Amino acid sequence: xxxxxxxxxxxxxxxxxxxxxxxxxxxxxxxxxxxxxxxxxxxxxxxxxxxxxxxxxxxxxxxxxxxxxxxxxxxxxxxxxxxxxxxxxxxxxxxxxxxxxxxxxxxxxxxxxxxxxxxxxxxxxxxxxxxxxxxxxxxxxxxxxxxxxxxxxxxxxxxxxxxxxxxxxxxxxxxxxxxxxxxxxxxxxxxxxxxxxxxxxxxxxxxxxxxxxxxxxxxxxxxxxxxxxxxxxxxxxxxxxxxxxxxxxxxxxxxxxxxxxxxxxxxxxxxxxxxxxxxxxxxxxxxxxxxxxxxxxxxxxxxxxxxxxxxxxxxxxx
Length: 318
Hints:
- This protein is an alpha/beta fold.
- The chain has a single domain (9-238), classed as TIM Barrel, CATH 3.20.20.210.
- 49% of the residues lie in helices and 13% in strands.
- The chain is built from 14 helices and nine strands.
- The protein has helices at residues 9-15, 20-25, 27-40, 80-84, 91-94, 96-109, 122-131, 139-147, 149-173, 190-209, 226-231, 245-252, 271-285, 305-317; strands at 46-47, 63-66, 70-73, 115-120, 177-182, 215-219, 236-238, 257-262, 291-295.
- A hairpin with a 3-residue loop joins strand 2 (63-66) and strand 3.
- The chain is globular.
- The model has no long low-confidence stretch (mean pLDDT 96).
């Protein structure tokens, strides 16, 4: 989960010289940052360095990353008229740098570990497009969803199409698995998820399933949505730290893999507490096939690097 980032000094050195969009759009930089964690700790897979919002730029949205505020979109989608101005995306032309980064990374890895690709889920992409940035309550997103349901489904249709093309390009370039990040979907209830979100996520997984790589479905705050997320069609569903791993797995059923689910803040705790929490999760997995040990969300910026390494070593030791 977000292996590269501000917790690594090597990453900060590069970030000090380049904007986020520059790093994502430069294959050499993206590849270098992707490989940094692989060189420093014995993780079992690499995760491509990119950003879920990249496809919004060729769609015509003015995206920038503001220090302290994160991504900001200056011309958000707030009406049917705004929706109509969104341009179709030729992924090979507009986002070809991502596939180039994948090829550079896989060449450098030489099969040592697999590379995981990813994309943002239709709901989360649409939410960013509507809110214009981060949001606490997603009022604008939900109002658009309720007041303009036809336009909502049209918007998510556009998003799902570009997501399928993104993931297809990454698989063709060499990733071994893909992950769909629905980072904000935990803000909707089960009924709204079924009506307004599930059909579009399912469409993505149905199309990507034909490519023959494992698929992971990730969300935060999704304890009430697990069965519906499973029904979208991924092979693995992410569990955050708000539910015991064994309980979440029982709800998903034995035919679905799980990813998770250490609280990222645990990495700030004393070593004996970290060890206890890691062992608790592994004990709840009980040796069943299909558990990917991971955090319940990304590594936080101030996280001690040695504690990240310690967790990796604990899992291998166990």
